[in-house]
Amino acid sequence: MPAEPDRPTDALEAALTDVIAVLMATSTAYALIGGLATGFRSRPRYTQDIDVLLDVPQIRLPDLLERLRAENFEFDMHGVIAEFKQHHLAVLWRGDVRLDWLAPVLPAYRHVLETARDEPGPTGPIRVATTEGLILMKLLAYRLQDQADIEALVAANGGTIDLDWIRREWETIFSTDDPRWRWLEQQVTGQH
What's residue 70's pLDDT? Predict the structure, then answer.
C-alpha cells in the first residue's frame, strides 16, 4: 500500500530521526528547511527528501560523514567534501531518501539558521526554520512547488508573518522591484 501523501514515510521518518541525532551528537548548527519544514509550519505535504541548512566547519565534516555512514547513509566521502567545499551543497542517500545539505553562505541564510526554533519531532526536538525563514528561502528558489509552499505558509500563518523581516533579508540580495517580491507582498497582504 502506498504511503499516505500527508505523512512522512517510515523510511523518511527514520532517516530524519537519525540525521537529527547525528547533528545533535556533533553539536552541528542546523535548521530543517524544505518540504518537511513547511509541514511543521503549515500543512503536511508528501516529500521523500530531507533538506537541511547546516553550518559545519570543514575540519569536522569527515567525522560527521562517518557518523552518517554508520547510520546507513550512502555517499562518496571525497565527492561530498569537495561538493560542500566548492558549491556549498551536498547530496547523500539512504535507500530512496535523499538528504540535501546547504551551507549558509549568504548572510540571509545564516539568519534563517540563527532564527530556527525547536519543534517537537518523533523522538525529540527538531530545529526548524521559522515561517519567515522558509518563505524567504522558497521565494529565492521560486519553483512551482516553492510557490505552492509559500501559499500554504501564508494561509496557515497569515496574520503573524513578519513581512518586514523577510523584506530586510530579501533586500540584501534583490530589490523589492523584483516580480517575486511583488508576488509575495500580494500573497501576504491579500492585495491582488
Answer: 98
- Is position 1 within any domain? no
CATH of the domain at 39: 3.30.460.40
Cβ atoms 47, 12 nearer than 8 A: yes
The label of the residue with cell 521560486 reads 142
Contacts of 78 (CB under 8 A, 6+ apart): none
Nearest to 49 by CA among 7, 1, 96: 96
Q: How many domains is the chain partitioned into structurally?
A: 1
Joined together, the cell numbers standing for residue 53 give 541548512
- For residue 6, what pLDDT is reported? 45
- pLDDT mean values, one per 10 residues, the chain (192 residues): 51 95 96 95 90 95 97 96 96 96 96 97 93 98 96 94 98 97 94 57
Q: Would you say 132 and 139 are in contact if contact means Cβ atoms under 8 Å apart?
A: no
Cell numbers representing residue 28 in the block? 552541528
| Any domain includes 108 | yes
CB atoms within 10 A of CB 17: 16
111 in any annotated domain: yes
